[in-house]
């Protein structure tokens, strides 16, 4: 999803401002989210293994198995697929920041990491127009020698 948004923004910006260099990179999520994703990755494999083997982990703790566990034992293929896809969905959500940072002449113009959201295309164009006008104005000012 976010890659597509970045590519769309990149296309529009490069059409409107052909001289601007556009780069994209992935930003790592916060460490807590990386740890959650790693834990889920291992937990998923253990859970699938327990479902396949048919070992009841709840009996180890002296607990009665919930009905979903019993359903999983009766429908092992569906249960394994459900655990796999559900876990992958959560892992991907934890690892995706969707961040993108926009800089112009090494000056930050927009940060999704700081703002928490993506700018609309109109908002982004207005920001870039303002920055470009400011840069042109600053370059046209006479330079004073000391």
UniProtKB/TrEMBL annotation:
It holds the Pfam family Rdx. It is found in: Endoplasmic reticulum membrane. The keyword Signal applies. GO terms for biological process: cell redox homeostasis. One of its GO terms (cellular component) is endoplasmic reticulum membrane. GO terms for molecular function: thioredoxin-disulfide reductase (NADPH) activity. The gene is Selenot. This is Selenoprotein T. Keywords: Endoplasmic reticulum, Membrane, NADP, Oxidoreductase, Redox-active center, Selenocysteine, Signal, Transmembrane, Transmembrane helix. It catalyses: [thioredoxin]-dithiol + NADP(+) = [thioredoxin]-disulfide + NADPH + H(+).
């Amino acid at each position: 999803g976010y890659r597509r948004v970045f590519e769309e923004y990149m296309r529009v910006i490069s059409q409107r401002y052909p001289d601007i260099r556009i780069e994209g990179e992935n930003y790592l999520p916060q460490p807590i989210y990386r740890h959650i994703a790693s834990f889920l990755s291992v937990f998923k494999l253990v859970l699938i293994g327990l479902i396949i083997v048919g070992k009841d982990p709840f009996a180890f703790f002296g607990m009665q198995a919930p009905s979903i566990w019993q359903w999983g034992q009766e429908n092992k293929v569906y249960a394994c697929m459900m655990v796999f896809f559900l876990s992958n969905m959560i892992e991907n959500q934890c690892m995706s920041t969707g961040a993108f940072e926009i800089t112009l002449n090494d000056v930050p113009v927009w940060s999704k990491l700081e703002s928490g959201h993506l700018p609309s295309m109109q908002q982004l164009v207005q920001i870039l127009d303002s920055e470009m006008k400011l840069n042109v104005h600053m370059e046209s000012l006479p330079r004073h020698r000391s």
